[in-house]
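Retry 2 of 3 after timeout on previous attempt. Resubmitting structure tokens to design endpoint.
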């Protein structure tokens, strides 16, 4: 092989290695700092208690983390997480909930298509709010900050409730609309959780995609 071709091939290989490394570390960064993250399991008695009270196995948790990290990297690479589009991913037992804001219909469709391509995904729930043709405003940033605040308050309130197994639910908020996904032990627990959330200040609407512990989709 001519030397200049060998040099170009070597350089291309190095660039691919750099890109793959960047994608890996970016996914890890998003996993740690994203507010719409799938639950993670850490060592210690707190994690043991969490596992004991939730309707989810460690194996499912590991698969969910893999789905989340893959999608997070894919979304950044395809312009679905930037200053114009902010599409978030929440994963529970292979069920993927897409929330956030897209600036056109095609971006929202791309997010759904990418989610279905990931190994282990059983269901994709599209709750993306499409704001076609709208530009970014200062109010978008203040609204996002307030949404994070609402989500934090909800998680805290559910945590102290004796009638709700907090670790069975994932909560995300977009423009005051609260989205729920997870597994409820029974109808009564789910109704209690929805009732707590709907009465909290700043919550405009509650959308539940929570299933019951005996739902067939859990074994799909």
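Retry 2 succeeded. Sequence:
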């Amino acid at each position: 092989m001519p030397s200049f071709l060998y040099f170009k091939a070597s350089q291309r290989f190095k660039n691919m290695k750099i890109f793959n490394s960047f994608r890996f570390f970016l996914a890890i960064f998003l996993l740690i700092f994203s507010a719409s993250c799938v639950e993670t399991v850490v060592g210690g008695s707190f994690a043991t208690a969490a596992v004991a009270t939730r309707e989810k196995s460690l194996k499912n948790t590991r698969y969910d983390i893999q789905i989340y990290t893959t999608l997070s990297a894919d979304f950044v690479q395809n312009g679905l997480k930037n200053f114009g589009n902010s599409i978030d991913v929440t994963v529970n037992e292979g069920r993927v909930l897409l929330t956030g804001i897209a600036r056109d219909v095609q971006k929202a469709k791309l997010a759904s298509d990418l989610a279905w391509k990931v190994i282990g995904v059983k269901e994709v729930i599209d709750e993306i709010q499409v704001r076609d043709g709208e530009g970014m405003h200062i109010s978008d940033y203040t609204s996002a900050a307030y949404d994070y605040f609402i989500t934090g308050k909800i998680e805290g309130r559910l945590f102290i409730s004796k009638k709700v197994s907090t670790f069975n639910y994932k909560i995300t908020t977009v423009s005051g609309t609260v989205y729920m996904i997870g597994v409820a032990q029974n109808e009564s627990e789910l109704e209690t959780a929805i009732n707590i959330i709907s009465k909290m200040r700043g919550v405009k609407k509650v959308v539940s995609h929570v299933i019951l512990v005996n739902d067939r989709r859990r074994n799909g």
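Attempt log closed. Residues 3-11, 13-53 have pLDDT under 50 and may be disordered.
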